[in-house]
Amino acid sequence: MATARGAEFVRNNGKKFARYQWDSWGPLGWFDDAIFDGVASSFENPDWADVTLHSYRVRWEEAEPDPRYAELARRQAAVKIITVPILTLHGGDDRVVFAQSSEGLEKHFTAFYRRVVLDGIGHFPTREASDQVSRLLAAFLDSHGKR
Question: What share of the chain is helix, strand, coil (3-state, %, to 5)?
Fold first, then answer.
């Protein structure tokens, strides 16, 4: 997506591009055609390709971030320790951001911190394991008085 050829493919084949991600970023069988097709209607939004390309390109430092958010980005980068309760949910079968990448991060948090690896779940835990995610999130919010 950082090249003109990749961008052209995303712009002209948004549904194929997204389907490839869904097929390869998690375990087989976590969705069916009806679920994908329901979400794929959002790819028809005229801004979808540009927003998608810009999102990836900014993360790879291949595009400038939106200047309207420069102050938020500066504040975020300045934070070295997070002082609010944190629940991290990570798919154990995430094939994009490996579960190991979220190991051993406790030192960055001074409040409650819990990391849960969801076995057999890929890159999209809220879609792949919505009931499990909901239970974990509700318990977290209940225990921290934010629900």
Answer: 55, 10, 35
Domains of the chain, by residue range, sit at 4-74, 79-143
> What single letter denotes the amino acid at residue 43?
F
User: Do residues 121 and 91 make contact, with C-beta atoms less than 8 angstroms apart?
Assistant: yes
pLDDT tens series, the chain, 147 aa: 889 999 999 999 999 999 999 999 989 999 999 999 999 999 989 999 999 999 999 999 999 999 999 999 999 999 999 999 999 999 999 999 999 999 999 999 999 999 999 999 999 999 999 999 999 999 999 999 755
